[in-house]
Amino acid sequence: MAKKEVSGLAINHLNTNVFDRMTRFLLDNANPSIVFHVKNDILKNITEEEKEALQKRVLGEKIIQRIIACQKENGWLGNGFHGSNKNAGQYENQEVGVKYLGEKLIYRDTPVLKNAIEAFKTMKPDLFGSEDTDCNQYAATGSDIIMASCVARAGYEELFDISKEIQVSLESFQRVTEINSVTDIVKIRKRRPERVNPEGIAYVFNKKEKWPCRYHLDILAHTNSWQNQENRCMLAEAFQKLLRDNGLDYLPSYCVDIGHLVGCCGAFREGMKLGVDQGGTHYVYLDLIEYMCRCGLYGLVPQLKKEVDMIYDSVDEQGICCVNYCENSLKGMGTYSGGQLEEDWKSKTRKLCDVTYRGLLILYHAGRV
């Protein structure tokens, strides 16, 4: 967890408007990728000359160079698909590499990213077996939704058909609204505690069942074709149901049965939270809140509105977002979390830029700035 402590930063522009203050702080201090997104996506006033200069700086960064160096002839990044392994580093694998490049690069058609996306057309990653590439087989599981989340995060929705996965994502959230509880669509099994959780209770989804997960939300947060009021209202209903207290005094593991039990891809639990309380302090999940706001849910989910308003109120006179946040959900970048665009956090300012950038995105997509 990270409590914000801010002092001693030299900021030349102390605007009274929250939006102006945040953008000015980022333009004065942030990594070129963040500067690009602020100017291009939010202020919408970037020039081609600025883009080219920022791209040159981004391409020179060490992590980007490592990703470029690990790319194979067919475009695949590194020696892994779903995150790191003994032969694939944190960023030198297809999933994290594509997502990182998608957020860092200035141009979508940069060869390293374009070729990595093309590799999905020829490579068929398989996590569990011959049926795995059909994401309808198992709830919140399957290579298809992982691939689609990469395509969505990279901004390739219009060039690579992920319409099936977008529909599955919507249907998975819709399922929450159709049943009384997740217990209606699972088998409850007790296993050795060390294999599941301290209570040893596993919720095993029925075959062909649907249930939403982090990947479904990632897909919807970074695509536009599904966006209409009906779908947003359905998502809001699903999240309000998921956010209700489920009354359980244990945390069940969500699994699927592929001949043996395996965990789902970040399936959302009934009784989920948008932040965590620890030691009398509330810490927000910046990534989860950002994705929900990208889906247009700010005014539709009261619990989300409360968290966003807390972020708004935390912005100081220098334009820095001073909200207490869960550091693990922001630091680095991985399969389930992380949104760090600064090269490192060796200085306090760099960390503050990442926090403030995510705070600005949240407020922008919520319509608060």
Please explain how this structure is put together.
It is a single chain. This protein has 369 residues and is of the alpha+beta class. It is 42% helix and 7% strand. The protein has 13 helices and six strands. The chain has helices at 18-29, 32-43, 48-59, 62-69, 94-104, 111-122, 143-153, 163-178, 214-221, 229-242, 286-294, 302-313, 348-366; strands at residues 186-190, 201-205, 253-257, 261-263, 275-278, 281-284. Strands 1-2-3-4 form a four-stranded mixed sheet, with no helix packed on it. Strands 5-6 form a two-stranded antiparallel ribbon. The protein is globular. The model is unreliable at 4-16 (pLDDT under 50).
